[in-house]
Amino acid sequence: MKIKTADLTYRISYNLSLITIGSIIAVLPLKGIAVHEEFVTGGIFGLALMLHYAGVGISPGILFAALNIPLAVLGWFSVGRRFILYTIYAMAVATLAYEFMDMDFGIENPVYASMACGGMMGFGLGLVLRTLGSNGGVDILAVVLNQKFNIGIGKTYFLFNLVLFSASATFLAPDTVIASIFTVLIGSMAINYVLALFSNRKLVMIISTKHHAIVEDIMESLQQGATILHGKGSYSGQDKPVVMTITNNVMLKRLEELVFTHDPSAIFIVENTFNVIGTGFSRRKLY
Known about the structure:
It is a single chain. The chain is of the alpha+beta class. It has two domains: 5-196, no CATH class; 201-273, Alpha-Beta Plaits (2-Layer Sandwich), CATH 3.30.70. The chain has helices at residues 5-9, 12-37, 43-53, 60-78, 81-100, 110-129, 138-149, 153-168, 174-196, 211-221, 249-262; strands at residues 201-207, 227-229, 242-247, 267-273. The longest helix is centred in the N-terminal third of the chain and has 26 residues, at 12-37. It starts with a helix and ends in a 14-residue tail after the last strand.
């Protein structure tokens, strides 16, 4: 029997497997690249690395776990117990992996090192974020601030890392700080790519006098839904129905051909959407 993605998302085995794999992948470049180049990788683990470089005689893995304790308590009362339990598991896997793995990827060029570190780290963190948990640290704080005060998750990361890198610049070489920032930027792009994988959609708006025929063909030929919005021309004042539909990259070209076959004078507007939640699309994640 085929398992629906929406049902799979809530399975404990699925979440634990993805968290385990993602956490280990994320730690590999930290232990194999970051510590050897003295990179500060952003977030709470970046803070732990910075404190380690500053002379605190505690392993970054142990510091990471200790710094996460108050944040986990905050999340327990503010977000949801399932979310925090998965997050605690992710933090435990990351801490143990860091403490027990010993490796050096041997990348000497700092540019290549930051690219490899950011790419691998972002891929692993992105896998964890596809679950009902998180990687801990700033993830917890960002979710709490977003849910309670509608503060964008990206803003929380930006402000935290701004303070972190400013502090790092007081005792690390400028080249190292710049390479660290580059690592975080690449990691952010990798996270976004993993999160958008299988979820990216296209929002299409179609303005045409043949809107009825277009909608009928969309439903019959493409097996997709569509909505007719009521618009009005600003100059003519005449009613101009607007067809709205959601598709993906694979079907976009077929949709375009369908529209202009019916009406060569149609206006075809495409917008990227990160995710669509609702019937027929992604299921809302309940933490």
